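@channel sequence for tomorrow's demo:
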Amino acid sequence: MDAAQKVLQDTFGYDGFRFNQKQIIDKLISGGDVLALMPTGGGKSICYQIPALVRPGVGIVVSPLIAFNARSSRCTSIVRG
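structure tokens (generated this afternoon):
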């Protein structure tokens, strides 16, 4: 069993990866860069959490979600007046 599979089972309690998660995780663990577009509920967080737990050092994740949520909140406030 590889390190990613062990973390998946021991830390998160899942027996297997979802569609494309393993390929994304393996690429990140090997030091590569990945741009992954996945739907809501597609298992994105596992794709950056497992490499951060397996690799030494710090993992950095760039996500537009926070900026999108902040902008949506401002737009909602403007519309409500």
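heads up for whoever presents: Residues 65-80 form the longest helix (16 residues).
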